[in-house]
């Protein structure tokens, strides 16, 4: 994965979020670490790392999915994207969850109905 120019040149995204993105894409695919572990190894601290992850999530570069394992346990899976998956304009509200306005309501996947931890 390369560093997206749109992210690098976006003046609305903090340098902390950009730096965290670079750190995350430099990790191997099977790398596992919690937000708390990342923050504890960072000079910025937990609040800054959490805010940077929230910022990347709002711009569509980062997403966390909750997956139910065969044994019934839940696991969080983080995904990083070089192309925003849900581009958000600065100041725009993140849409609230609710019933779809059209289409088949049974078409929603169960994992999207699980609240993120």
What does this structure look like?
By secondary structure, the chain is α+β, with helices and mostly antiparallel strands. The chain is built from 4 helices and 2 strands. It has helices spanning 5-9, 15-25, 35-40, 46-59; strands at residues 62-68, 74-80. A two-stranded antiparallel sheet has the order 1-2.
* Helix percentage range: 25-40%
Order of helices and strands: HHHHEE
- The low-confidence parts are 94-100, 102-117
Identify the CATH architecture.
Orthogonal Bundle
Terminus-to-terminus distance = 27 Å
**How many helices does DSSP assign?**
4
Which fold name fills CATH's third level, the topology?
Arc Repressor Mutant, subunit A
Overall geometric form? globular
SSE-based structural type:
alpha+beta
Task: Give the gist of this structure.
The chain has 4 helices and 2 strands; from the N terminus they run H-H-H-H-E-E. It has helices spanning 5-9, 15-25, 35-40, 46-59, and strands at 62-68, 74-80. Residues 94-100 and 102-117 have low confidence and may be disordered.
Please outline the helices and strands.
Elements: H1 5-9, H2 15-25, H3 35-40, H4 46-59, E1 62-68, E2 74-80
Antiparallel strand pairs: 1-2
Helix pairs in contact: 2-4
Any descriptors?
117 residues; alpha+beta; Arc Repressor Mutant, subunit A
């Amino acid at each position: 994965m390369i560093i997206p120019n749109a992210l690098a040149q976006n003046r609305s995204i903090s340098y902390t979020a950009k730096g965290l993105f670079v750190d995350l894409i430099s990790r191997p695919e099977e790398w596992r670490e919690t937000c708390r572990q990342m923050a504890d190894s960072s000079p910025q601290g937990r609040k800054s790392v959490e805010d940077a992850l929230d910022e990347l999530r709002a711009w569509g570069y980062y997403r966390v999915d909750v997956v139910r394992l065969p044994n019934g346990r839940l696991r969080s899976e983080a995904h990083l994207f070089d192309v925003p998956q849900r581009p958000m304009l600065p100041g725009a509200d993140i849409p609230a969850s609710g019933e779809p306005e059209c289409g088949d309501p049974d078409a929603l996947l169960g994992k999207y109905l699980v609240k993120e931890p």
